[in-house]
C-alpha cells in the first residue's frame, strides 16, 4: 500500500503540472475545437522534458523512472489536456513498451531508442472493424515471402495514427489457427511501401489526439521486424494492454482531478442567494462524492502502477484501475458540469470538454465490460 509519494515522485508531479498549466492549458480548448494535434507542443516538448521514454532504462534512451512516475506524468498532463495524456500513453505503453518487453537487442536499439528519446512517435495497431473487444478476431494477414513478411488488411481507431513513425501491428500468420492462436506482432515503419492511412475519425472527445485507420496493401517488411515469437502475438497484445490500461487509468484520474479542481474553484466564486454556492449542502455533497471517488481511484491506480514496477502480476490490478478510474472520470465530470450549471454546458469553461474526454476512457484499451471480464476471470479462477 502506498500512502505517501516519494520526493522524486513529487518533483516529477510538480514539474509536469507546471508544464501542463503553463504550456498546454492555454491552447487546450482551441486544439479541441479545431481537432488539432500540435506535435511540437504535445509530443516534442514532452521529449525535451525527458518524458517520451519515462519508464525505459537509460541504456535505451529512457529516463529510467518507475511506473508510478509514468502514472503521475499521464495524470498531470490529462488534468489539463486529456489529448496530450493519451498521446504519451499510447506512445509509451502501446508503441514502445512491447518493443522493450518482447524485442531483440537489435530491435531495441533500432526502434525503441528513437521512441524513448522522442525523435519518433509510436502507435499500436490491434483493432479492426470486426475485432474490437474480440482482439483474437484479427483478420489482417502476414505471409512470409522470401526475405519479407507481406501484410494485408486494415486497422481502425489507431491513436497517434498518421503522425506516428513506428507501429506495432498484429496480423494472422497462420490462417488455419482459430481465435487468438496464429497471430503475430510486427514492427512497421511509416513510409514503408504498401502502408498508408485511411479515414481520420472526428470524435466526441480527445479531439486533438489523432485517430486514424491504417491500411496494408501488399506491405513488405523485413523478416527481422517480427516482434516476439511467431504465432504468440496475442499474448504480446494482452501483456501490452495490461500496461496500457494503467496509462488510461491515469488519464482518467487526471481528467477527474481537473474537473474537480475547476468545480471547487467555481463553487467558491459563484454566488447565488447572496453567497458562494460552495456554502450550500447540495453542492457540498456533490463535491464530497467527487473528492471521495477520486481518492479511491488514485489509490487503486497507483497500486497497479507500483505492482507493474515491482515485477509481480498486475493484470487484474490494471483492469481494476482502469475500470474504477474511468467510471470515476465519467461520474466526476458529469457532476462538475452540474456544479457549473448552465455555464458548465457551454464551451466557455473546460468541464464540458472534460466530460466529453472522460467518455473514451470507458471504451478504449478495453471497454468497462472487458475490464469486468478480466477481473471476473481473475477473481473466480481461485
Ligand atoms: N497476459 C498474458 N496472457 C493472457 C492475458 C494477459 N493479460 N490475457 C489472456 N491471456 C492468454 C490466456 O492465458 C490464453 O492463453 P492460452 O491460449 O495459453 O490458454 C489466451 O491469452 C486467450 O485468452 P482468453 O481465452 O481469455 O482470450 P479471449 O479471446 O477470450 O479474449 C479478452 C479475452 C479479455 C476479451 C481480450 O480479447 C481483450 O482484452 N479484449 C479487449 C481488447 C482491447 O483492449 N482492445 C483495445 C485496443 S488498443 C486501443 O484501444 C487503441 C488505442 O490506441 C488507445
From TrEMBL:
UniProt keyword Oxidoreductase present: yes
Domain Acyl-CoA dehydrogenase/oxidase C-terminal: start-end pairs: 231-379
Pfam families in UniProt: Acyl-CoA_dh_1, Acyl-CoA_dh_M, Acyl-CoA_dh_N
Keyword Flavoprotein in record: yes
CDD domains registered for this protein in UniProt: SCAD_SBCAD
All residue ranges annotated as the Acyl-CoA dehydrogenase/oxidase N-terminal domain in the record: 6-118
UniProtKB keywords: FAD, Flavoprotein, Oxidoreductase
Cofactor(s) annotated in UniProt: FAD
Domain Acyl-CoA oxidase/dehydrogenase middle: from-to ranges: 123-219
PANTHER family (UniProt xref): ACYL-COA DEHYDROGENASE
Family membership noted in the UniProt record: Belongs to the acyl-CoA dehydrogenase family.
Subunit-level organization: Homotetramer.
Protein name according to UniProt: Acyl-CoA dehydrogenase
Protein species of origin: Geoalkalibacter halelectricus
Lineage, broadest ranks: Bacteria, Pseudomonadati, Thermodesulfobacteriota, Desulfuromonadia, Desulfuromonadales
Amino acid at each position: 500500500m502506498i500512502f505517501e509519494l516519494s520526493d522524486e515522485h513529487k518533483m516529477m508531479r510538480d514539474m509536469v503540472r507546471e508544464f501542463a498549466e503553463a504550456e498546454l492549458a492555454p491552447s487546450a480548448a482551441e486544439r479541441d475545437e479545431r481537432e488539432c494535434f500540435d506535435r511540437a507542443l504535445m509530443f516534442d516538448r514532452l521529449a525535451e522534458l525527458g518524458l517520451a521514454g519515462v519508464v525505459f532504462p537509460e541504456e535505451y534512451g529512457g529516463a529510467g523512472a518507475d511506473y508510478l512516475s509514468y502514472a503521475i506524468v499521464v495524470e498531470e498532463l490529462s488534468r489539463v489536456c486529456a489529448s496530450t495524456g493519451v498521446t504519451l500513453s499510447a506512445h509509451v505503453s502501446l508503441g514502445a513498451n512491447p518493443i522493450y518487453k518482447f524485442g531483440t537487442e537489435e530491435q531495441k536499439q533500432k526502434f525503441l531508442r528513437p521512441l524513448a528519446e522522442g525523435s519518433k512517435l509510436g502507435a499500436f495497431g490491434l483493432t479492426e472493424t470486426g475485432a474490437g473487444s474480440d482482439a483474437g478476431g484479427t483478420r489482417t494477414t502476414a505471409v512470409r515471402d522470401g526475405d519479407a513478411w507481406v501484410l494485408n488488411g486494415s486497422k481502425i481507431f489507431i491513436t497517434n495514427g498518421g503522425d506516428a513513425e513506428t507501429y506495432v501491428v498484429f496480423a494472422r500468420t497462420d490462417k488455419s489457427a482459430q481465435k487468438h492462436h496464429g497471430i503475430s506482432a510486427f514492427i512497421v515503419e511509416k513510409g514503408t511501401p504498401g502502408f498508408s492511412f485511411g479515414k481520420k475519425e472526428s470524435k466526441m472527445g480527445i479531439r486533438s489526439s489523432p485517430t486514424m485507420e491504417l491500411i496494408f496493401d501488399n506491405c513488405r517488411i523485413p523478416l527481422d521486424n517480427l516482434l516476439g515469437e511467431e504465432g504468440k502475438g496475442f499474448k504480446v497484445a494482452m501483456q501490452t494492454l495490461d500496461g496500457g490500461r494503467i496509462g488510461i487509468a491515469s488519464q482518467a484520474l487526471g481528467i477527474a482531478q481537473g474537473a474537480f479542481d475547476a468545480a471547487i474553484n467555481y463553487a467558491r466564486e459563484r454566488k447565488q442567494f447572496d453567497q458562494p454556492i460552495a456554502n450550500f449542502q447540495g453542492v457540498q455533497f456533490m463535491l464530497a462524492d467527487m473528492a471521495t471517488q477520486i481518492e479511491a481511484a488514485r489509490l487503486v491506480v497507483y497500486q497497479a502502477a507500483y505492482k507493474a514496477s515491482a515485477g509481480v502480476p498486475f493484470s487484474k490490478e490494471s483492469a481494476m484501475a482502469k475500470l474504477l478510474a474511468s467510471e470515476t472520470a465519467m461520474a466526476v465530470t458529469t457532476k462538475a458540469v452540474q456544479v457549473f450549471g448552465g455555464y458548465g454546458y457551454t464551451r466557455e469553461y473546460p468541464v464540458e470538454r472534460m466530460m466529453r474526454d472522460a467518455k473514451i476512457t470507458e471504451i478504449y484499451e478495453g471497454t468497462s465490460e472487458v475490464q469486468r471480464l478480466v477481473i471476473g476471470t481473475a477473481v473466480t479462477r481461485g
